[in-house]
Amino acid sequence: MNSSRHKRSATGAQRPHYRKKRKFELGRQAASTKLGPKRVHTVRVRGGNLKYRALRLESGNFAWGSEQTTRKTRIIGVVSIYMDYIHQNWFDDDRGKSAIIQVDATPFRQWYEAHYAQPVTKKGAKTAPAEGAAATEETKKSKHVLRTLEQLAKIDPLLETQFAAGRLYAAISSRPGQSGRADGYILEGRELEDFAVVLPQEVAYGQAEARTDDNRGEVPLNMREG
């Protein structure tokens, strides 16, 4: 119990029981959700309600806000935990709320190409006309529709670079330890620009911490014999 109501006073007297125990006083262990095959435990909480403690997850639903679409995709790994507790658990691969992760870009790329009838990256645009020439002739879209689609199809250059690599940065907005799900949204705009600046700093910090941990067991030069 995370309280001292059950303890006796300094003189040894038993204290009066002025209220019953509460579930929130248990001090349960954190979920610390990891990357792996789905494993969710059901927890009975106060009032007979249920919570879903995700111990391991490998996929989730992520929203692409600017395109107003959501797709289920595979989670590749954790990149940063900078929102709530920056620089903590750097190598633990914990996936809690606000963690920045990398997800598979394939479901979003497939949706984009089906919706706009053009490749999501400039690299794929070179080979597209030869492959999709027949399909373009069959649909016979008006020039106005094509111009509108071309304008709407523009995406952030940073996002386009990620599509070329096959991985997108995303943020988890759900609470895996409470709901048993790892859902979130794709990073875009100012948030993505800021994170592109923060990430190299975090990587440098993590590498420095790793070197410090490796050197802790070594004897200082001024204490070595000889």
From TrEMBL:
Keyword Ribonucleoprotein: yes
Protein's GO biological process: translation
Region (Disordered): 1-35
Cellular component terms per the entry's GO annotation: ribonucleoprotein complex; ribosome
Matches recorded under PROSITE patterns: RIBOSOMAL_S8E
Domain of life according to the entry: Eukaryota
Gene3D superfamilies: 3.10.290.70, Ribosomal protein S8e, subdomain (1.10.168.20)
GO molecular function: structural constituent of ribosome
InterPro entries, sorted: Ribosomal_eS8 (IPR001047), Ribosomal_eS8_CS (IPR018283), Ribosomal_protein_eS8_euk (IPR042563), Ribosomal_Se8/biogenesis_NSA2 (IPR022309)
Keywords: Ribonucleoprotein, Ribosomal protein
PANTHER family reported in the protein's UniProt record: 40S RIBOSOMAL PROTEIN S8
Protein family according to the UniProt entry: Belongs to the eukaryotic ribosomal protein eS8 family.
Record protein name field: 40S ribosomal protein S8
